[in-house]
């Protein structure tokens, strides 16, 4: 069975380590915050200028001056700090954020990522995504393994305009957890009940299967 | 210290000297921390042909979006321009020129403009459409592109508190691009919620020193929320 | 949030991992805002062959000058190195290598190192000995030279207050290079006068977010004054 | 009569305008603060991170954490602000300081300045001087017109390593107030009782004398 959006988030959350500063993109990545394992604390960075993002506010707590990068009202945890956008991206570009999780349209065997623009469709802009992928050493891309119509998104070469070049090492899809190294995809784990063959069929870029591929544990 | 008193008493005075075809940098992220009354004044003035540098362009009926219906903006440099139907229409029809710039690069370009750094290298955008036409160079085995600084005729800033000398304090994430915008305007105009006397702000707590500020006006703000997201009180 | 508790309880622990021939960035201007106890710990440890990046190099018997007698410093990158007899002796004899860098360029190089900017252009130093061997380029008809970023194995920082997560507040002009140093160390070690619990510092008033800080230690400081200059009480 | 150090400072102070942000170098420039004309307010920038430098402290006010760029204990005026060294030089390099006053060993007809290094002698470093001369549009150099031995310091070409290239437009010496434009010195004013001939004799670079040269007024 393909993972649900929440299961993808849950599996990503297992990659968190105590003391990690983490930037979570919009969509599935945001949900990772709901599955932080017991005994582990992370601090969420929001690129509009907040380190230590908390839960959504109660009605009484809503503050127009306190939003996240998705423009949602949020709160701050104890120990949070506020800074301007240049400082926020100094943090990101300088490699100080331990883990970045974000979505994508396509990823390829060379670690290229396309996530912000489909030519001919409406272009809304890259926001902070190009800075995030260029700045982080440790990125997990979350996406569905293939389109609804079965078109592969894990490719030998991205077809869409890139968000970043050679910067992605880990991809978690609804079917598989994949590592990218030396110009190839490497299958690390498969979703419970999903066969290796099924994953191979829906992956266009070269996929290395080394030994028995375990099912994901949650 | 009358020479340092930056306070003006009308929006007309605040935006005096703005003329057609000028360049404007505006602080704000989404609708958070935007100089909403200064924007309204530009709408009211009817200035046209503007080049606007701002992370976003507001929504249809608030923020910088207010300058769209009368086609006051000729070009915008921004990182994200969704949530605005009239914007999309003008962009698709070619009436509005849009230059997309990564958010961190945009922030750094403003800072560089204010800081006398004409250009800097960054890995952001290497191998993407953003790199087109830009110098690329290796440092320590990695590729970087050269990005140039931005300055503008006017910088519009929203702060929380100020003293009369233009020393500014921002509040929470309404800070965002505002301190950077403040440094990069030939004329920097700031609107604030409260103006106090010099000496009432702790020098260690000032985010933007008054040297960057030319005009200061006190006002009230709607502070519209774009995505009001809440949890139940007991959660 | 134990993973974010940066507090260590000994200077040995604070400087653990520092070995011969490493690079160190230190905050401070003159003797103001220097990490005096961290420096003493390095003297005590006897680490040698160090490359030091700091605006100044202390005086004969205080601050970074303490590392001179046992010849612990191999090279220093600084903007001003007067007021130190042993320093002069080692520099003149060639035992100590000195790279003079303009103060503003030095500050910007540290900031760039922390901010992932590998290099930037500046007009500072054009046509001077500082420009030798550096790329020169015109922007808008003016010449600029290319300066590269600085990072170090260790960054030593003196702050005033911190919370356990390493969020820092500096006091008056003891701030100087410290926030920049904090961003540019692979391991950033901070000594402070007071450590409070997370939540006790206003997020809007934090100068250096804890993300830059690896180790934090509370101590007391001599705070020696280099040029005690006073006026009579009635003046 | 050649001007005293205080008279040089006093003449420089007449160039101040109400609302000027000013950086004063060490030595004579520092004394300018003692002669600020009535009705004019300026704010002093100290490049170690202070805008709004006040008087020296009383013994009771001395604070080791509050010094100026000369490492002297100082105070702050109401409305002062504190910032880090990168912000301080952003201010300077970005041209936000209205006037910079600093000393020099030599200045030449092309606006070059040498002020930090005499080869063979002890080299202490340029501190913030290179940033200040590169950043300010409006600089006044203060120095003695010639050495004790009568050697000119206003030259056709600086002989010492430069602090900045083509950046000086105004020089106030103990003998004369001189403007630099189009590759020449232009004599604007002379010190009271000092003859034009005397100034010509002690100036090595080309000096333009245009009409009657007035004596300085204080």
Automatic annotation (TrEMBL), chains A, D:
| Superkingdom, taxonomy of origin | Bacteria
Query: Which Pfam family is one of those matched by this entry?
Result: CoA_trans
Which keywords does UniProt give here?
Transferase
Name the InterPro entries for this protein.
Answer: 3-oxoacid_CoA-transf_B, CoA_trans_fam_I, CoA_transf_AS, NagB/RpiA_transferase-like
Q: Which SUPFAM superfamilies match?
A: NagB/RpiA/CoA transferase-like (SSF100950)
| Any one GO molecular function term | transferase activity
Family of this protein = Belongs to the 3-oxoacid CoA-transferase subunit B family.
| Protein name as catalogued | Dehydrocarnitine CoA transferase subunit B
Q: Which organism is it from?
A: Colwellia marinimaniae
Question: The organism's lineage?
Answer: Bacteria, Pseudomonadati, Pseudomonadota, Gammaproteobacteria, Alteromonadales
Automatic annotation (TrEMBL), chains B, C:
Concerning SUPFAM superfamilies, the annotation shows: NagB/RpiA/CoA transferase-like
List the GO molecular function terms. Answer: transferase activity
Q: Does the keyword Chaperone feature in the UniProt annotation?
A: no
Q: Transmembrane ranges? A: none
Q: State the InterPro entries in the record.
A: 3-oxoacid_CoA-transf_A, CoA_trans_fam_I, NagB/RpiA_transferase-like
Q: Which UniProt keywords apply?
A: Transferase
Tell me which Pfam families the record gives: CoA_trans
User: Sorted alphabetically, which NCBIfam families does this protein's record hold?
Assistant: pcaI_scoA_fam
Q: What is this protein called?
A: Succinyl-CoA--3-ketoacid-CoA transferase
User: What species was this sequence derived from?
Assistant: Colwellia marinimaniae
Lineage of producing organism: Bacteria, Pseudomonadati, Pseudomonadota, Gammaproteobacteria, Alteromonadales
């Amino acid at each position: 069975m393909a993972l649900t959006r929440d299961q993808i988030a849950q599996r990503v959350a297992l990659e968190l380590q105590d003391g990690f500063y983490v930037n979570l993109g919009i969509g599935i990545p945001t949900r990772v915050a709901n599955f932080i394992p017991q005994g582990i604390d992370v601090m969420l960075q929001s690129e509009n200028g907040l380190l230590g993002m908390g839960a959504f506010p109660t009605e009484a707590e809503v503050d127009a001056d306190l939003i996240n990068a998705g423009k949602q009202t949020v709160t701050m945890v104890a120990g949070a700090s506020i800074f301007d956008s240049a400082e926020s991206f100094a943090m990101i570009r300088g490699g100080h954020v331990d883990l970045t999780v974000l979505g994508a349209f396509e990823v390829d065997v060379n670690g290229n990522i396309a996530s912000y623009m489909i030519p001919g469709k409406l272009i809304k802009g890259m926001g902070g995504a190009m800075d995030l992928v260029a700045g982080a050493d440790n990125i997990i891309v979350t996406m569905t393994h293939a389109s609804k119509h079965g078109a592969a998104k894990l490719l030998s070469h991205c077809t869409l305009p890139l968000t970043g070049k050679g910067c992605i090492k880990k991809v978690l899809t609804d079917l598989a957890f994949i590592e990218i190294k030396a110009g190839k995809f490497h299958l690390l784990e498969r979703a419970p009940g999903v066969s290796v063959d099924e994953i191979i069929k829906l992956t266009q870029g070269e996929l290395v299967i080394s030994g028995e591929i375990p099912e994901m544990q949650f | 210290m009358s020479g340092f008193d930056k306070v003006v008493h009308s929006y007309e005075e605040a935006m005096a000297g703005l003329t057609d075809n000028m360049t404007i940098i505006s602080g704000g992220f989404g609708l958070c921390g935007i100089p909403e009354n200064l924007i309204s004044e530009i709408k009211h003035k009817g200035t046209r042909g503007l080049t606007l540098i701002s992370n976003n362009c507001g929504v249809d009926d608030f923020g910088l979006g207010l300058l769209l219906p009368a086609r006051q903006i000729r070009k915008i440099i921004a990182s994200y321009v969704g949530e605005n139907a009239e914007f999309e229409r003008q962009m698709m029809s070619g009436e509005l020129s849009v230059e997309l710039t990564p958010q961190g690069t945009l922030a750094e370009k403003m800072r560089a403009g204010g800081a006398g750094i004409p250009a800097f290298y960054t890995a952001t955008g290497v191998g993407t459409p953003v790199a087109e036409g830009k110098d690329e160079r290796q440092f320590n085995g990695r590729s970087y592109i050269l990005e140039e600084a931005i300055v503008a005729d006017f910088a519009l800033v929203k702060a929380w508190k100020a003293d009369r000398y233009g020393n500014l304090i921002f509040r929470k994430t309404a800070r965002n691009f505002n301190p950077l915008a403040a440094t990069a305007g030939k004329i920097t105009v700031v609107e604030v919620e409260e103006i106090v006397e010099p000496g009432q702000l702790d020098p260690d707590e000032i985010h933007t020193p008054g040297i960057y500020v030319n005009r200061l006006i006190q006002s009230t703000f709607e502070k519209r929320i774009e995505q009001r997201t809440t949890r139940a009180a007991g959660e």
